[in-house]
Design goal:
about 55% helix; DNA replication protein DnaC; P-loop_NTPase; alpha/beta; AAA+_ATPase; 13 helices; about 280 residues; Rossmann fold; ATP-binding; nucleotide-binding
């Protein structure tokens, strides 16, 4: 590629096209592509790379704790999880209806994996997603309130197509946490979708927030158009840790006890030599 063409592509911000242009020129020459076919190929290259970069930017902006995918989830470990519901959520149809989602279940049963995997899939479909733990939410608002930036941080929570709030119920929250959560839920209600996870029964939310009326108001709005997915069973992490510990304690081949018969020491002399000594 000559320098003039390279410079022009950079100015037009066609870096994706520039990356594959040499290869496409050889392909066009070798296969006798028409001008239209060649143009279609290089424009597809540009669109593909732009799409990949957009996904990368949205994944970074989502602030996932970990990047998870549904294909890595161990469905056989916990059969209480409704796989068809999870995959339906990953299509994004609930976002179009502005419905909310609540995943309930004990710690370690896969809730965080599932919501982050759903969020990642929705980003690939073109939606904007923000992931925050409940502790991130409280910390964001307490910090920005002190800095007189409440509306700025609230706008960050109101903008995404899907807001994911993870880990509700891990411990009691600081004072005023209920007010922050209520404002988020109220202002997103029927305009944007929110997905939350909790490991505590809904009747305990008042204790966790230290404000029963606010907790009631939050649940009243959040559960109005919500899909509730209840997960039961034991912790995946604790189960795998126990298996690893048992494997580590298992004896190796060299450590196993010998079970064969014991070897006895052969006599040093013959019977004739013993008789000869007896007669002397």
């Amino acid at each position: 590629m000559n320098e003039t063409l390279s410079t022009t592509l950079r100015r037009l911000r066609l870096s994706g096209l520039a990356e594959t242009l040499e290869l496409r020129l050889q392909e066009a020459s070798g296969n006798g592509l028409t001008h239209v076919e060649f143009l279609e190929l290089i424009l597809q290259d540009e669109m593909l790379i732009r799409g990949q970069r957009q996904i990368a930017r949205r994944v970074k902006a989502a602030s996932f704790r970990e990047l998870k995918v549904l294909t890595d989830f161990d469905w056989s470990f916990n059969t209480s999880i409704k796989r068809n519901v999870v995959y339906d959520l990953s299509t994004g149809r609930f976002l179009n209806d502005h419905r909310d989602v609540l995943l309930c279940g004990p710690p370690g049963t896969g809730k965080s994996h599932l919501i982050q995997a759903i969020g990642y899939q929705l980003i690939k479909l073109g939606y904007v997603v923000l992931y925050r733990s409940i502790f991130d939410v409280v910390r964001d608002f307490l910090h920005d309130e002190a800095m007189e930036g409440h509306q700025r941080v609230m706008n960050r929570y109101l903008k995404p197509d899907l807001l994911i709030i993870d880990d509700f119920g891990m411990k009691q929250l600081p004072k005023r946490s209920g007010e922050f959560l209520f404002e988020i839920v109220m202002r997103r209600h029927e305009t944007r979708s929110t997905m939350m996870t909790t490991n505590r029964p809904l009747e305990d939310w008042g204790k966790l927030l230290g404000d029963v009326p606010t907790a009631t108001a939050i649940l009243d709005r959040f559960l109005h158009h919500a899909e509730i997915l209840t997960i039961t069973g034991k912790s995946y992490r604790l189960s795998r840790r126990a298996e690893e510990s048992n494997r580590a304690k298992a004896p190796t081949g060299s450590e196993k006890l010998q079970t064969g018969p014991k070897q006895t020491k052969a006599p040093t002399g013959s019977g004739d030599e013993e008789n000869k000594e007896a007669t002397n």
